[in-house]
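Supplementary Note 3. Input sequence used for the single-chain structure prediction.
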Amino acid sequence: MTELAPGRTLAGIITCMTVEQLANVLHAQPFRPFTIRTGDGRSFHVRHPDFLSRSESGRTVIVHGPNESFSVLDLLLATELEVHPMTGAAA
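The predicted structure, written as discrete structure tokens, is reproduced below.
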């Protein structure tokens, strides 16, 4: 895999994600679903902006999943932000 400097993109993937990059992807118009990946290999899919909540500083996020599940993430542990293509009526 090609190594990139922190915050650089490769084919829709942001490596070493920052709080600002997450905010930009979350509030992009039109919205595109994305996945947050952590260093331990876990991934968290955000299919709509309403399914992610941020702390005031933006460092801690809650990703809401199916069946009332949720995960609390420290963005310092995030290693990648993958933005997916638009699908369906939004495309």
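The mean pLDDT is 83. The CA atoms of residues 36 and 81 lie 5 Å apart.
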